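Handout, page 2. Input:
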Amino acid sequence: MKKIILLSAMMLMTVVSFGRTRVSEKAVVVADTIYYAADQLCVNNPSQASYYRLLKQQGTGLNKEDVFQDFYMDGTLKAEGGYNFIDLNNDKNSQLNGEVTTYYVNGKEKLHGKYVNGQRNGFFTLQMRDGSVAVVDYRNGKSVYDYFMVTRPNGTQEKRPLSEIKSLLQ
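Output:
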């Protein structure tokens, strides 16, 4: 019975993560396409870019918000979410705000979490390639703990040192 419940929970989590969208199809493009190289510096020639960005607005009146969508050069969604500021020269300086989701090249969700004025805040989930899910709890841009939790597809959990999370994000 435990295995059935665990399997059901894993399947539900997978379905929920695939159904998550941040940017509405009705969002309006408000700027020219921005091209970035792998080092996150802006390039003028699309042939030198590793991804491109569309800046959009969605909602109306008090609900209007600035959102972005990044795409791999083949048109596959790379990332989407809200922002306060986009640095047109160096994307490392951009300030994200609100929910942001990144995706692997195959289109599957990679990382999801919330930014507040450019800082990670709350639980960030990383869908790992082996089917495991890593979770890190952030407050004001810093991890609350010196570890993160990984839940394996078979339901086992383990603590991992926070130093390992950067290698998993690549």
